[in-house]
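Kindly inspect this one:
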Amino acid sequence: MAISSLSRRDFLKKGSIGTAALFVGLNSNGVLAAALSSSGEVMVNPFVKIEANGVVTVISKHFEMGQGTTTGLTTLVAEELDANWLTTKVEFAPADAEKYANLEWGSAQGTGGSRSMPNSWDQYRQAGAGAKEVLVKAASQKWGVPEASITVVDGNVYSGNRKAHFGELIEDASKLTPSEKPKLKDSSQYKLIGNESLNRKDNFGKTTGRAMYSSDVKLPGMVYVAFIRSPKFGGMLKSFDASAANGSDGFIDAKALPNKAAVAVYGKNTWSVFEARKRIKTSWDFSKAETRSSDELVKAHRDLLDSDPIYQAKKDFTTEQAVEKLKTAEKFVEADFLAPYLSHSPMEPVNCVIEPTKTGILVHDGCQVPTLVQGTLGAVLKLKPEQVKIKTYYAGGSFGRRVTPTCDYHVEAALAFELLGRSKPVKAVWSREDDIKGGWYRPMAAQKVKVGLDKSGDIVAWSHRTAVKSISKGTFLEKKRVHGGVDHFSVENIYDSIYDIPNIAVGHSDFQTPIPVLWWRAVGHTQNVFVMESLMDMVAYEAGKDPIELRLSLLKQGTLQQRRFANVINEARDMSGWRAGQKRGFASSFTFGTFLAVVADVSVSGNEVHVDKLYVAVDCGVAINPDIIKAQLEGGMGYGLSAAIHNEITFDNGEVLQNNYPNYPTLRIAEMPEVEVKIVKSSEKPSGMGEPGTPIIGPAVANAIFAVTGKRVTELPFTKGGLELV
């Protein structure tokens, strides 16, 4: 079932050509309204479209990169509307932040932070309920029957022996106004929400090859462009010589980008530009570039830990106070941790097409944050944001890669488009080698921790130091995410831990480097959950306590969050048959509003580790699509296990050594453990699911390795300790 994206004007016009369509959404005052497309340019930003043939289309304001957004949003609307699931379709909304803003991002339209379902939960259900309300009222008036006599089932409206499908009522319904807050179903009435048998809306297109990605876009007269970038981050182009590429099959031209960051190589197809750029010689200025090797970068991070921290993440208890409090402890747990740079490595490398229009440009892209792209390209090309139209396609993964603060690949494409006089469509193509060697990375993070215990094994004080480059500083998120000099992403899940850790101080220092860093799946949780959950295990061992019991003892205040957290911990313990003293691993986390607990069983032979099975309990609020939740957990844990076991980006004299899957491997099927998932029933609002599975797998497996072998892993990936996944 193909998904298309149109401009708002074209979108509305489409319904008025040949057939009318009912649109239900918000009017200019932010109130639910209904309008018929044949009435002209209706002042409704639609979430629901109902055509004369009765087909319902849900307008998704969030993009789809495999996480199940299109299915989730369709479920919310179809549930309240009582639409026919099999015939309900979905389309991507046009780029319009005023009308399709992410409600948790203020005035920006975009997808991220596993917040698609949380921020759409009320909005899309109300749109579906509002559409149903006006259809029922229309039937009541048309048939002269009470509304109470009317039922709606699978896209049909019934009263006695009367029946009409949705399309037969749209004209009458368009004259009515939905309630500002239409009545929503009680959870006991759900037929689709929580239904494990629903087919995903993107399955058909993806399994038949009909689904469109921006990689598939081909336009008349389109020119392809690839780029030669500095081999060291921060390098600037001095000169280039393309004479050897002249006469190369399909090669058109090569031009230096005005920002001196790259050479644009133009050709007739992807192969021609990749081949032509091999023949082009370049010279670079590395005076401001990163030239350190990995060992030097590691040392520089650890030097920051050995110095006084620049910032204090907790203002009520500082590093100095923790040092004093630690003097009263009877025994200690001390450890140094290191997490490497990581590449996102989505299956589809980043790419986009910029097409000239009469009023500006049209960007074809698996676009994650349209508002950011509109503003950035508008500034680059001296266009108003509204002159930058975006057609959104499926994205073949992202994990954070498609939302750089600078819109890196979009800006490259725009500059290449400008150099050709804005006369032809330009398709910017990246290879996997381009992205791994010259992309954006999860930052390297070093941490040093000292925990003091009393005679009973209870925590007296906790001194925690972190060194990592800030992701937010210098970006549009700085005002929101940086407080007192501390980037929240750098210390999340440490300073704001749900555990009642007494006397915890978090000293933080920013690392400085030209190496670009970015949100990686689960952001700061990826390294911080590993550290915190490893430490919980280490404290339990030193105190002679069961790891699960220790965690539960730190959740005694009884807040709602702590009760939910303790509940998933108990669920994981029960479903796995955990008993104290077993050689198994355990980890729990609170990530993006979701509570997780995992028991890991591993087998170890020499240096070879096999992860046999994972028992996972999750509380993510109302489970909209249980099958997708399980898939996200399995995929997220596979992604996280791949990173924990195999992956790191390393440098030699500032140049990245990895370039593709052979030396930056993804998890093989044989390496993937069996995953048993228990979704805890909840009446709380949905929380995120795309990211929470990734951070927890590393510490769960590391703790299991310690339980089996007595070997503690504190540096990632596990191969640093001589361990291999089999």
The longest strand covers residues 594-605. Residues 215-287+350-429 form a domain with the Aldehyde Oxidoreductase; domain 4 fold (CATH 3.30.365.10).
